[in-house]
Amino acid sequence: MDCRIFGSLKTTVAIYKSFKYNTGNLYLVLQRSIYSKVEPIDKDVSNVEIVVPWGKVAGKLWGNDKNKQPILALHGWQDNAASFDNLIPLIKQHGPILAIDLPGHGLSTWLPRGQMTIKYYNKIFSKAIAQFLMIEEMENKPPIYKKEELIKKWIKNSYNSLTADACKILMTRGVTEMSDGTVFINRDPRLRILPVHTCWSHEQLLEMARDIKCPYLVIQSDKKIYMEDLKYYYDILDILKESSNDCRYHFIPGTHHIHLVDAQALVKVIDPFLEKYNR
């Protein structure tokens, strides 16, 4: 798979190497019924499930041109693939786009827990275990919310980056509705711990950025929430401008979730970039 990826600056720098040397077409994976399930929603959109060792990776696929490598759209921390529901329909003319729920998000399976792995090992390799002792196994039940209550909570936790309408879009994949109309969040609660990529040093991130050669488009909104000193952000951006064969930086007024709440504002920047490189 060549490097056609939507996502945050840090996330994209981090996953670039995973895709750099994979030259296969993503459709070849999706077409293997043993590994995946593709269910058309309408003529242009399909729900996708890709089987992985711990369960499935779920997503939405816009477009059906099987001769063109899909763009892989990756959502942000604790969001899900629905965060692209407003943007992708505006740019899908550039080719197929696959938005996935990262593990533990949306409709994708949570990553395994160590305690579960121990029990599976005992069942599969029973002759290798002399004794097995379990102390106070507990089942954690997720909090239950009224829809309006959860929407207010999400807006507050996003520092008003989300709107009520944006929350409803994220809820299409992010919650499960009970028979009484209440909902619980599908997201793995372990995700509330900061993502693993925040554990990398600034020097490691700079080194990753130096290895990126592909065309690179960065869109920043003026209300972006920074978890680190702005200097570190621009240090990486400066490296990308040197290493990438075409690094473009655009400042567009909006919130952290601008791609969801004001997708039209991004089209004028994304269109020429994809027109040039996504052929």
TrEMBL record:
Q: Which Gene3D superfamilies match?
A: alpha/beta hydrolase
Q: Secretion signal: which residues?
A: none
One GO MF term on file is: hydrolase activity
- Which controlled-vocabulary keywords does the entry list? Hydrolase
* Recorded superkingdom: Eukaryota
Example GO CC term: the record gives: membrane
Q: Which InterPro entries match?
A: AB_hydrolase_fold (IPR029058), AB_hydrolase_sf (IPR050266)
Family recorded in the similarity comment: Belongs to the AB hydrolase superfamily.
PANTHER family named among the record's database cross-references = MONOACYLGLYCEROL LIPASE, SERINE HYDROLASE-LIKE PROTEIN DDB_G0286239
Q: What is this protein called?
A: Serine hydrolase
